[in-house]
Protein 1
Amino acid sequence: MQLDPRLPHTPREGAIYGAIICFLTSLFMTVLNVYWIMGGLHQQALLAIFKWWPLMFVIAMVIEPMLIGRLAEKAMHKLSPPTDSGNAKIMFRLIFTVFGMSLAMTSIGIMLSKGLHANFAVTLWHQWPRNFFIVLLAEALVIQPIARTAMLKLHQKTIAV
């Protein structure tokens, strides 16, 4: 069986791949959500980004491989027949991961910014769908291609050595 050179082949490569995706996604969504909440990218907003982004990155790096990634992998195998192409499997995995991560990270972001309050479910209901679709587009069009290109270059470098 030929391994896809765009995807990680070892646990170390998986950690690098996941770190690239978590880094870019958490930074992008932290900046975007702070921008919306604070009405722009002024000095106070930039301070909020520098304060909250490292925490959001660490949270994403913990929950993706330990929980969301495992569930997404199981869902992908359950709903994607073995005859599906590699690209179809990548898209299934992407959709399931973005679904879970956007729900978890939106919930955590609301709790960190506003606390666990009486209108938590209403706030989540309003913010999560927007975050899901934005992250899905960002992941599919920019973030995942960057991570896959990094893996491809890593594998080309390994083969050349």
Protein 2
Amino acid sequence: MAKPGYVKPASTGLAAGLNRGFIVTRRELKSKPSYRRGRKSERVALVREVVREVVGFAPYERRMIELLKIGSASTFKRALKLAKKRLGTHRRGKRKRDEMGEAIAAMRRKDAVMSIYWQSFWQHMGHALVSDDKYLPSDEAEEDRSWCPRLFLHCYRLQFKDVRSEPQLVICPLPPDLKAALGKVGAADASGHSSEVLFDETSWQWE
């Protein structure tokens, strides 16, 4: 089979030789769908990306990811063997193994980014769940409370008197994800490590 871009030389009109044959005018043939075999179009790539996003990995792909995460030479070979059995050829298996390796790298990059995010999220200059004066020296706690609006919105209620001298209470409830995180660390349990005393009159449990 000729390589892509190959142009056959013109015939010499002789019955023998490298370019033998009648001199003819070649017709321009329309491209066939089979010419594009093995090439991924933008549409196919988009459809596969959407399917992967919605459905996730196939069972054999998840098994390959488990093997590749181990990282040993034997599991690397077993992942290739599994891909070859599922996909039929050695080349397809190697390509699938490389694809799963890239997927693992993407997962680790995402986990690293989220780890950095949560580390900064839990730092004392932006603690969104509990009052920082429980964990910080008094001077740092005062400074932190003075400029961190997220801390105020998540941990405190604002009570004041309006123009009629009637008491008003402004409540800013916790987002569901942060509320669930508090429940996991035991803040919703009065007997737990993070009890109701931690929040006193500003508890999110009273929302």
Protein 3
Amino acid sequence: MRLSAYERFVRDCRKSIARIARCTGGEHSIGDVSNELWLMALEVEDRYTIEFNFDNPEHRDLVLKFTYQKLVKYAETTVRYAKSMDCPWSESEANLYERLPSGNGVPDEFVRSEREQREAYKLSEQGMSLGNAWLLVLELNGNRMLTVARFLKLSRSQGYRRFQKVRILADCQRPLPLDPGGRGNEVVRPWRKFKCYRTPEQLVLPFETGFDF
């Protein structure tokens, strides 16, 4: 008898069932929605401790509403717009967040990994300098001076003094060019500007060769 009541329910509510199927964007057919209604009726019985009656209008509205929430609303927020990790990605889609399926949020380890990659890229773009070297050391040691001091075999006070010195140097220091352009020793060293001395040249009068007037 319950099966016949279910068949009447499907027949009477075919428009509502078709509407739910359309709202799923083609992921579920009318038959899929009808089967889900039967399973949802069993869940409603367990949740509300009632005997579900497919001929009861209130029970019909309840199971239709719950099925719509499950197949449409829930899927839109957690499943439908999630991108599969098996699909190919172009080079422009380099963001790690775009390669994750949607769910309860991006895991902390992925957020941390993406942030570290961005910071490492910024450091590499600054060129070779003493300031950049200290930034890399700080980054590798979690930006904690105590860990940096242990890493460099220094006391913490020495680490702070050297860090302050390097900050002043970094303001005046020129980055070392990666491509000297074949000039070799003619490349200006990465130190303060006033240390780039001009080579003195002795002026010689041409007494032996004579003056050209």
